[in-house]
Amino acid sequence: MDFLAAYDAIPESDAARRVALLRQRMKGDGPALFRELRAARPVFATPVGVFVTRMPDVVEVLSTPDVFTVGVYGPTLEEALHGPFMLARDGADVHWHDRGHAQLMLPAEDFGPVRRLTARLADDALDRAVAEAHGQGRTTFDYIQEYAAPVAARVAVEYLGFTGVDERTLHRLSRRVQWAVFVNPDRDPEVHASGVAAGKELHDLVAAVIERRRAAAPGTGADGGPPKDVLDRMLRTVLPPGAEMDDERINHQLVGYLIGYQQNATQCAATALKELAARPDALAEAERLASGPDPASFDAHVWEALRFHPFVPSTPRLCVRGHVLAAGTPRETRLAAGTVVHACMASAMFDETVVEEPYAFRPDRTPVHNMVLGHGAHDCVGRYPARAIVPEMVHRVLLRPGVRPLPGADGAMDYAGTPYPQHYTVATGGAAPS
Ligand code: HEM
């Protein structure tokens, strides 16, 4: 049965059943649900908020932060980080300032060095995973646990500056915070408490790293050479009076970057490979480009693959004053202050009224139609490192002819009861020694 027919058949008074059906369809077949909503009810009011599914309306919500704020998850994020952070606030004080600071700390110039760093760490992880598998008589390994998660965490240690922090600890703690802040719609108290405690652990680990650096080089925490990593850059930067970042604020920035990055990079490296493997022509073309002279064309395959499975399919915003959405269109909707609005980016990227042949795999699309890194006032401020890390993790795999998802198991990703994929079996590409 079509979703809307089934939904409308449930009495309006039975909000719990309506929400349960919505969540079941969202989880079971989000793309089909969004397709139906875009066609029949593009601005869809439910007991858990208004779902906005068409590209212009998603752009409107995400580009109007004085009306649509991050107030839905902001307080939890700040509780977990134990202080202010840009993705928890809107307006001049924290958001504008800290985002400006982050743009300097995560500059476009990092793209090349971060790509080379990722290549080295990825090659090393692949060597280890294949050798360990063969050593144990296996011809497969776990792409997420043995490759994507450790590579992402090692990049966090070497590039962001989590020096000396155990990579498994980084991954585990960042997952707990991500889960509590962004994927806990009913505010389950256990998930919430676990995320807040994990945030405190990360805060204390980073405080110890900063203390060690300050002790090693009093004053700046630096030894006079070029900045070693992002933390080093933050510790050395002298900002004008009134705009300073003390060590506590630097701590929140660094932990916040990790929360915005670790699970995202791990999942994207896996789902991009999965989406390519599900399309043999696209996979063959990506394999050809992987060893060619045109990295931009290769990368476009990865970002197009992620359009079909983005890490953030929708992001909630709190409407803080009355607003007419999609004014002057047939979708015009008056939203009251206090309404939660879900900007469904996974739907917008398939809006057939804007995006040409949305269901075709087309790496030549304009980047404007790709919202994998968000959109508007809070779009990904880590976009330059993200654009290096995610494609390079997939690139290193495709350079190894046999390391591929198992045939027929393109979608077989095991979430192990969490919101994020935990296991994905791939072939090693060689025979285990007998
Ligand atoms: C690896 C893949 C990545 C993906 C898929 C990704 C995705 C996103 C998305 C979708 C948003 C918007 C969230 C929203 O509107 O609610 C976002 C924001 C953000 N990302 Fe990323 N991100 C990635 C990497 C990174 C990296 C490497 C960093 C930093 C080192 C980072 C830091 C941030 C921060 C701080 C924000 C909030 C910006 C603001 O509030 O103005 N992300 N990211």
What does this structure look like?
- Helices cover 53% and strands 7% of the residues.
- With 434 residues, it is of the alpha+beta class.
- The chain has two domains: 1-33; 70-311 and 358-396, Cytochrome p450.
- It has a five-stranded mixed β-sheet with strand order 1-2-8-5-3, with helices on both faces. Strands 4-9 form a two-stranded antiparallel sheet.
- It is globular.
- The N and C termini lie far apart (53 Å).
- Protoporphyrin IX containing FE (HEM) binds at residues 86-87, 99, 102, 106, 256-257, 260-261, 264-265, 268, 311-312, 315, 372-374, 378-382, 385-386, 389-390.
| Structural class estimated from helices and strands | alpha+beta
Order of helices and strands: HHEEHEHHHEHHHHHHHEEEEHHE
The radius of gyration over CA amounts to 22 Å
| Uncertain segments | none
Kindly report the name of the CATH homologous superfamily of the largest domain: Cytochrome P450
Q: Kindly estimate the percentage of residues that lie in beta strands according to DSSP.
A: 5-15%
Q: What's the CATH architecture of the largest domain?
A: Orthogonal Bundle
First and last CA, distance = 53 Å
The CATH class of the largest domain: Mainly Alpha
The biggest sheet amounts to:
5 strands, mixed
Question: What is the general shape?
Answer: globular
Q: Taking strands numbered 1, 2, ... along the chain, how are they ordered across the largest sheet?
A: 1-2-8-5-3
